[in-house]
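Me: I'm a chemist; would you kindly supply a protein sequence with its structure tokens?

Assistant:
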Amino acid sequence: MGSYLEELRSYFQTHNKQKEYVGHNSKVHTIGWNADGRRLASGSYDKCVTIFVFDGHRETLRKDYTYKGHGDSVDQLCWHPTHAEQLTSASGDKTVRIWDSRTHKCSATINTKGENINITWSPDGHTIAVGNKEDLVSFIDVRSQKIRQEHQFKFEVNELSWNNSNDLFFLTNAQSGQGYINIYNYPEMELVHSIHAHPGNCICIKFEPHGRYFATGSADALVSIWDAHELYCKRTLPRLEWPVRTLSFSYDGQLLASGSEDQSIDIAHVETGERVASISVTYPTFTLAWHPRHFFLAYACDDKDDRDRDRDAGTVKLWGLADRS
């Protein structure tokens, strides 16, 4: 394992350049790559979803289209797990929208009961789960575009995720100031495990692409990597000092990127927990996502305009580019 870790470190010593792209006129809350890695979507406080097209040969993004229609901030988005053209967005306007990136149209608007902040698409593609500020989680049937079931929780619900086999549903949450991962069987939604994961609020959760592990990030600034089958904590990453807001595994499951209010993004080797690389940032990191086929990391921070510090820059960055100098 040591030799592969050294290989990764030396790779990123020559692949540590980045480019910046303006996608919005306000802060970017959420980004995500589609299934084939040809498109990157971003959602913003400016109520819009922007689509970029990725050119792998040139290692560049090109702004393709901006979807308008939401009446409030777009807090989270995600793509269909296998259909590369479909994505969904959750907004404070009490709707969930499904977009088609071929036709550039909104193919469905689903009205929900509250201001939506978290969204995830089931691995089988049939269901979208959305959580709102009142800790209500709604399950939307994608075919009928209707809410199939709702669950009201009595604790603060943060992020949502299915496991890769689609039969368990995970919620990161806070109860009495402590961080928990609640695991429900799906679709019955009966609680099967509750893991006391962190001494602080458990904020985010991400599954490794092959489903072997998942990672959680917490208000205690720790990142934990868990065995997805045995449900034990394999290791914790202690390098950040601020609450962990966003996580992403690389396509091969070997790397885990973590973002927070720290002035760096940590990139860890999953097997050993060692740092592989670090990206210096000036502002808090809201969202990050590894490309599904290459070692490119897209991310967005609370960046300000260089000329006007009171204005959000609305930029998306792409890191991991070859040093051509």
